User: Fold EamA domain-containing protein from Stomatobaculum longum.
Amino acid sequence: MDKNAVRAAQVLMISLVVARGVSFMFSKTLLVDMGPLTLLGIRFLLAFLVLFVVFFKRVITEIQKDKEILSASLALGAAYFTCMTCELIGLQYTSSSTCAFLENSAIVIVPILEAVLIRKFPSLKVILSCAITSIGIGMITLSGGIQSFGLGEFLCCIAAFAFASAIILNDRCTRRHDAFSIGIVHVGFIGIAALLAAFIFEAPHLPQTGTQWMMLLMLTLICTCLGFTLQPVAQKKISAQTAGVMFGLNPLTAAICGWIFMKEAMTPIGIIGGILIIIGIIATSLRPDG
Assistant:
């Protein structure tokens, strides 16, 4: 394989993971004035419109050839809708760094779910990685005492399981269908579901200031259009193990942004917990295939 192509894919993947980490900061800021479902609906519908206008011919052509793209996109969209809804509501009750760390423990949950699906007991390395990550999660969420594990942390844990399910669904769906088209269509499904839910449970409204619009556009164009659509493109050129290691940058990015821009503090025990989570994620990602 062309080394330059691999290097470009690695740079792209790192950029997407970092963008995902930055999204926690933008989302938490916008949630001060917007409901989580409203933010989710507007963000993903705007992203879908941008992507669909640019890639209209390709998406329509692929759907005409393979109508199962719609059902695959609906299933993937439902998993991500659950993940993102729990994430945004959780962000209202906990810090962006804690939310990012907990949600990205999904990288460790994935091999456990796969083991159940294929009825094969996880390897010793996977078990040890899960143990390390579980200790890290306990340290980062319970560093202030048992009372610090509240609704926000609980919702972030649900988001982690939904994220893990989405990763597995993404793997299954993109093996049989056009990954790029699924990447676009499922974004539309997420936006529609979120906006419908927003009209039921919230009072939807658009951003009120120029700063809010700028943050929304950053979430739409960079974190959604790129992060949710180009990940399959990047992973075509690099191994799953390498991609898994790079996902460790996600919570690290969120923690750094929260510390620099939002004055979010983390206790020494919480910092050690975060390091353990990253170690667990990396150890699982580097497990040999089979």
